[in-house]
Structure formats: structure tokens, C-alpha cells
Amino acid sequence: MADHLEASVTLPSDPASVAAARTYAVGTLTEWGLPSDTETAETVRLIVSELATNAVQHTLGQSPTFTVDLVLERDEQLRIGVTDSHPRFPKRLPAAVQQDNGRGMVIIRWLTAECGGTLTVRPTREGGKTVWIELPWTFEDRPVTTAGRRES
């Protein structure tokens, strides 16, 4: 495989774009050799979904689009970035039991840490921000069953 692969898509800041972002990310990673039925693919799907949802819901109409970037370095590290043009960085919200939303960044941080990755948020030159997730690129995981559990 190549030392460096990149892919990017810019989508309208619309709720329907969240599914498109998930599909794009997993489809691209499948082209790069990651089977779509693995735990890693499911993790990426969930991370992209949560980041895209945040880009749509929390930019208060100030970001007409968001961009999903995927970067694979030397078959060792996968970087997932979601960029929007709103200057406010994500905040940790107190998780009230009755609350229906506000847990996205908690989920993303937990999944990232569980995979041995890191999360960073960086400002863009244009005044927005990119949330970057860096994950080890491995194929050690097994296929996910229909119940969402790894096969033994």
C-alpha cells in the first residue's frame, strides 16, 4: 500500500449529510483495505457520525458546509478530521440522565481512547475548527456479528 493516502468530501450542513459522511468514510476505508464488517469500521462509522452531527447541529447555521478528511500514513495511523467554519470549539457538557443530546464528544473521546488514539481540536486559518481523531491502523479485529459483538 502507499505511504500516504488522502480522501476528502465536503457536504452541506444538513442532517441528511450525516449518513453521507458515514457512508463516504467507511467506503473509502474499504477501498484502502479495511473490511467494512470489522470493529474498527464500526468505530470509524460512529466517530464520523458523531463529528458530522456536531458540525451540523452545533454551528448554529454559521457553517453552510463541513468537510470530512481521511488520511492514512504508512499503513500505521489513520487520521479522521471534520472541519466546519464555526469558531466555537466543542465543549464537554454535563451529562444529565434525562438529556437526549450533548454526549457526542464524550462518546468520541471514549472510543478514541479505547482504540489507543488521540483527539485534538485545531483552529483553521479561516476561523473555524477541525476535530482530528488519530487511530492506529490495524486489522487485528474480527468481524462484527449482527448483534454488534465481535466474533470469537
TrEMBL record:
A GO molecular-function annotation: protein serine/threonine kinase activity
**The Histidine kinase/HSP90-like ATPase domain, residue ranges:** 11-133
A Pfam family that this protein carries is: HATPase_c_2
Q: Does the keyword Ion transport apply?
A: no
**Tree of life domain:** Bacteria
- Record keywords: ATP-binding, Kinase, Nucleotide-binding, Serine/threonine-protein kinase, Transferase
The protein here is known as ATP-binding protein
Q: What is the lineage of its organism?
A: Bacteria, Bacillati, Actinomycetota, Actinomycetes, Kitasatosporales
